[in-house]
Amino acid sequence: MDVVQNAPAPSPQTAARWLEDHGDALYAYARARVGRDPHIAEDLVQEALLAAMASANRLEGQAAERSWLIGILRHKLLDHLRTSLRERPFSVVNARGGDDADDADGLADLFDRRGRWKTPPSKWTAATTAAAADPHALAESAEFKDVLGHCLSRLPSRMAHLSWLRAAEGIETRELCRQLDVSEVNAWTLLHRARSRLRRCLSLHWFEGGKAR
Amino acid sequence: MSFLWRALATILLLTCRQAATLLSQAEDRRLAAHHRAAVAVHLITCRSCRRYRRQLVALRQLLALMGDAAPVYGGAQRLSPQAAARVRSVLERRAEGS
Predict the structure, then answer these.
(1) CB of A101 less than 8 A from some CB of B
(2) Which tens digits make up the pLDDT trace of A21-62?
């Protein structure tokens, strides 16, 4: 791969080719991370390409070019998530009671009043065989991706954003909180809710749904 | 002394709901010593929470492995022709303007 420094402004043809070659990949990347509204993902692709045109350094070669563009898109995406999380601030929730003292952690649907499991986690047969032994195989299964996508889409979008950034992008919680301007307590609460729901949804639709393999 | 009693009470009276919260937080930070002890004691006797912990770990591994192969939130994974045309015209205008 070649780094072209102080490159001249790209011609209209170059920008059009970026869109042609990488538009769908950029869109899919953004769409998977911003939730259901297709227009947000479209706008992010546009912003990223505009930023790429203005950039003084760029990479050449098909694969390098794509990861360079995705890197730019990722910055735009984080900006977007930061703004959208700030526009709708987290409600104040903490362990000593928040907006609802009986349900501070938002998990009243999972536990009874004495804090016991209403529906205890059931055994993940496929998890012990496939995920524990070979999570790679499971993560590459198209069917499993569909189920996970379905389960993510059922989370409120802020929860989905946070758990995605935390788990899939591997961003540390402290760094995530700094970038997104949320308190760590709120982030833990949201992440806990998100994990509980994802876990339960995967239990129902994959690990117990007769799809275990 | 009162700290010890509080710690002991936490350890003995921990509910599954509190244990689940702590197990999730343990994915994000190092827990305080009395919380670590409380969770450890709770896990000895609680099969459901042991299972919950294993599944949290599996969930983290799976999400991490998905990485860039992110599942899409339903709907198309491609730019619609209309959107592509709109972006193209914005890029052209910008290129002419510079």
Answers:
(1) no
(2) 999 989 888 877 776 677 888 999 999 999 998 886 777 777
Q: Which residues of A touch B12 (CB under 8 A)?
A: none
Which tens digit of pLDDT belongs to each residue from A92-126? 443 333 344 456 666 778 899 889 999 888 888 75
**Threshold 0.80, pTM exceeds:** no
CB A18 within 8 A of CB A65: yes
Taking phi over 0 as left and psi of -120 to 50 as alpha, with beta for the rest, B74 belongs to: left
3-state secondary structure of B31: coil
Question: Is A24 in a helix, a strand, or coil?
Answer: helix
C-alpha distances out from residue A192 to A22, B18, B89, Å = 35, 11, 44
Sign of the CA dihedral with A120 first, then A125, A126, and A129 last? positive
**Cα A18 to Cα A46: distance, rounded to the nearest angstrom:** 11
CA–CA dist A87, A93 (Å, integer):
17
Q: Which residue of B has its CA nearest to A127?
A: B58
The two structure tokens encoding residue A161: 């954003």
Which of these, A169, A162, A165, A149, lies nearest to A193 by C-alpha position? Answer: A162
In sequence order, the β-bridge partners of residue A59 are: A3
Task: Say whether A198 and B59 touch across the interface (CB within 8 A).
Answer: yes
Q: Which residues of A19-38 are buried (b: 16+ CB within 10 A; e: fewer)?
A: beebbbbbbbbbbbbbbeeb
Q: What are phi and psi of A182, to 5 degrees?
A: -125, 155
Which residues on neighbouring strands pair with residue A60, listed in sequence order? A2
The answer to whether residues A117 and B42 touch, using CB atoms and an 8 Å cutoff, is no
Neighbouring C-beta atoms of residue B60, cutoff 10 Å: 18
